[in-house]
Amino acid sequence: MITNYIKIAFRNIRKNKLFSFINVISLAIGISASFVIGLMVYYDFTFDKFHKDGSLIYRITTQYSSAEGESYNYGVSVPLIAEVKQSVTGIQLATSFFTIEPSKVMNASFSKPFNNPEKVIYADTNFFKFLDYDFLAGNAITAIDAPNKVVLTESRAKKYFPNKSYNAIIGETLVYDDSVSTKVTAIVANFKERTDFTFEEIISVETGKQSYMKDQILDENWNSTSSSTQLFIKLNSEKSVSAVKTQLNELAKKNASEYSIKYNEHRTFKLQPLNELHFGGNYGVFDFSEYKADRAILYSLLCIAAFLLLLGCINFINLNTAQATQRAKEIGIRKTLGSSKKQLVFQFLWETFLLNVFAGMLSIGLAALLLKVFAGFIPEGLHFSLFANPLIIGFAVLLIIIITFLSGFYPALVLSSFKPVSVLKNSVFSTNSHISLRKGLIVFQFIIAQVFIIATIAVGKQIHFLMEKDMGFKTNAITYIRTPWMDSSIEKRQLLLEKLKTIPQIEKVSLGGSPPASFNTHATNVLYLDGKKEIRSNIELLYGDENYLKLYNIKLLAGRALLNDTIHEYIINDTYRKTLGFKTPQEAINKMVGEGKNAVPIVGVMADFNQRSLKLNIEPMAFIGDWNRKGYSQLNTIHLQLNETDSRNWSTVIDKVEDAWKTIYPESEFKMDFVDNTVAKFYEKESSMTKLLNWATVLSVLISCLGLLGLVIYTTERRVKEIGIRKILGASLLQLNLLLCKDFLILIGIAFLIATPIAWYGVHNWLQGYANRTSLSWWIFVICGLGIVLLALVIMSIKTLSTASENPAKSLRNE
Amino acid sequence: MLLELNHIFKWVSQGGSRVFLLKDINLLVEEGEFISIMGPSGSGKSTLLNVIGMLDGFQEGEYNFLDQSVHSLKEKKRSQLYKEYIGFVFQAYHLIDELTVYENIETPLLYKNVKASERKALVADMLDRFNIVGKKDLFPSQLSGGQQQLVGIARALIAKPKLILADEPTGNLNSKQSEEIMELFKELNQEGVTIIQATHSELNAAYGSRTIHLLDGGRDNI
């Protein structure tokens, strides 16, 4: 029976090549999108599932709440570690580690040091009890139980010592940053499963006390928190969660600073379950983790996949119910031959299933393509090979079965319900009863397509607006180089600065901190007493020498520039001036900010500029010199103004800059960034979102139009006789075309009317997240409406014009 | 007794008044009969055949088929009944275009859940008997009208029905083909199959053992 079903299905598919093609393509698009998105969801939801007692593992994080809102840090203050290990009950094991960024690592056998080894930590002795590493050489107990010991992973060991056996590597000395000497005590296998614990070099924490991290590791201040200080605990049982929470709350309360009590700021230590780690939420994963999975993005991707699938299914339902008349005869005969309704439903479902299997096979190829398209969202570890996973295969089969039912069940019911008598009587048979359903489905398809179109245009407009909007400072032809942070010598930086000044194509140079807009922020809390009340505000700090503001073309509204680059003076921005309550910039000059010996005069007011993405507001800010030069100089970046008109020669200039760099920092990597590139990076999320929307739009419009084409072909063919008669009566080609397209155009019009408010609402809400936003102009909607009508007309005319121009004698002859 | 119709009425309402398709039809058919139904177009021949074949219902009257009262049976039971005992032959052959000759003949067996090996044997017998073995892999569009009707009859017979209902089986055929088909029916009837055919042609009606004349939905004379 089944072979018979499959055979008939094959012949029917072959007979209606065009319809089958439309069906398969529309379904394949939806299925392939679902494959890829399903893969991404699966990938992100299967991180760190393999740890023993994973449900008992938590990371302790810090949350601050104050009147201004909440802020988060995924590290803790160092004294908490000892407190948790010693006195908190309900915990079977706790481990702490510090993520670090050594600038180089050296061994006697290396010809030159490895720069910037990544994923290095200082860990306590519990670390290897906490995570189940597989020891390829050495053992867990003595691995990091004393100073100057390091454990390497398999991959790192192969990188450093490519030709040595693991046992021979044990005992080798690795020197970090020329000062911290360690002996390799063990080699562990990298975790095979997906994990965020991707550390490569694990050094005993005792070693860290000899390094630049000494101050942090030995820190006894309860109120300084670094995200590099990581504390993980394993509970006795799931029941002890609340008891541990209570104890942590008490610790936070007991050790609150006077300051936070005075200003009503609260700190709480939070328990972050292991399975939340990968998604981060308000937190990051670890300092060096670049990719952060985002549930919101995954959910919107799932929505897109669902919509595309739905559109494909709608095409299927529409085309098959429309075609029903052509199969009515077959159904009638089968019924008289003794087929039950159930058997017919099965037959049609098999046919649908077969089409879906074709679509599924096609989708595997398409999915490979889509993986490239979605590359911006896809984590590096996700490969096409994940398709071989039995769970994914199971999901794919299930998906195809579900779609088979979704798309095939209704048409199967419609087809199998035909009465044999009415079919066999040869009475002209119409499927008008299902026309309103088909109309509804078309409207639905075009609503989705048009919402996508409007959203795409509006988001594109907003991003264009953000990119084009003046940041408030010059971004063209400005580059910056960060000097190696391990080398704190200000003299070397000034020497480099002098060397760069001699390169003729460089117009201006300045030594400063980060560029005016960057991902780095320095902030401080300052107090201003205006005689009556105190104004305490958080201000961002921007560091630079006397040339900095000139180089970035930031205007002074009042006052003067800094006298020199170490003097304690403020140049505040206009926003801070308003916060302080001065009516004019002039009024702020010479006022003192801060108390007692920390009081600093305002010597100038600079124009406002955006410090970060234009999504955010301009924050109060002060431009200052290098106040802490003796301790730690903040002027670590050299800013260069290149000749704007001479961009062709920039590469030679960059080479010259690199040569100068090599004479001063021969061992460090040279890296130059353009300010406008840095600014563009603020909008990475937006630009990948645009890409995604573009694809969703193209695909949804494509599927909808294919469906439309199919229906137009079908309805037009059924009206050939009518067209012939009308033509004989004198109708023109244009009139005939309009007649044939009219019904569909009305449907698209209805879809437009429904789509507009939905799209407006969605985009309007999205725009609320931006401090600087473009207007939702009327022309966006007009373009969308006209565009889709035009597109639909073109597609429909492909068929209607050719039918209308046929010789009526031909179409009427058969009657 | 194979089947019995008592006072069958069938009508449609048109503009408030009833238009009768069948009016007070009484008919008793014994097993082994060969009945011809004659009458002009629109006299209700096809409707009567459809009612007998249980493809169509009626408003009033009784219909007993092999001692079961069809009028009180549920749809499902009724289709089981005709699946078991009745084969249909149509004027327009009504072969399934997508299936080969072999598959067309096989189809009723599929719906009766006959085993594959048995199916093969039965279809082979039928092909043999009708001399169409060489055509078994052709599609209906590749056959002449007479050949198509042969396949149609073969298909109707494959499930070994007690009754064959033929609605103008030769209406689309030329006279030579017609004669062949009618000879075949006669042969089948002699083998014990009950046949009821609707026809325009006196010549064809003559093959039957009994002729019923219809006029405007009612028996003209007996």
Structure notes:
- Chain B: InterPro entries: AAA+_ATPase (IPR003593), ABC_transporter-like_ATP-bd (IPR003439), ABC_transporter-like_CS (IPR017871), ABC_transpr_LolD-like (IPR015854), MacB-like_ATP-bd (IPR017911), P-loop_NTPase (IPR027417).
- Chain B: Residues 3-222 form the ABC transporter domain.
- The complex is a heterodimer of chains A (815) and B (222).
- With 815 residues, chain A is an alpha+beta fold.
- Chain A folds into four domains: 1-47 and 293-430, no CATH class; 54-277, no CATH class; 440-470 and 683-815, no CATH class; 485-667, no CATH class.
- In chain A, strands 1, 2, 3, 4, 5, 6, 7, 8, 9, 10, 11, 12 and 13 form a 13-stranded mixed β-sheet that branches. In chain A, strands 16, 17, 18, 19, 20, 21 and 22 form a seven-stranded mixed β-sheet that branches. Chain A has a four-stranded antiparallel β-sheet with strand order 15-23-14-24.
- In chain A, a hairpin with a 4-residue loop joins strand 16 and strand 17 (534-543).
- In chain A, helix 12 runs antiparallel to helix 17 (435-468), helix 17 (435-468) runs antiparallel to helix 24 and helix 17 (435-468) crosses helix 26.
- The radius of gyration of chain A is 34 Å and the shape is globular.
- By secondary structure, chain B is α/β, with parallel strands linked by helices.
- Chain B has one domain: Rossmann fold (3-Layer(aba) Sandwich).
- Chain B is built from seven helices and ten strands.
- Chain B has helices at 45-52, 75-85, 101-111, 116-129, 145-158, 175-190, 202-205, and strands at 3-14, 17-29, 34-38, 60-65, 68-69, 86-89, 163-167, 194-199, 210-215, 218-219.
- In chain B, strands 6-7-8-3-9-10 form a six-stranded mixed β-sheet, with helices on both faces. Chain B has a four-stranded antiparallel β-sheet with strand order 2-1-4-5.
- In chain B, helix 3 (101-111) crosses helix 4 and helix 3 (101-111) packs parallel to helix 5.
- Chain B is globular.
- The two termini of chain B are 19 Å apart.
- The mean pLDDT of chain B is 88.
- The interface between A and B is medium-sized, with 25 and 28 residues.
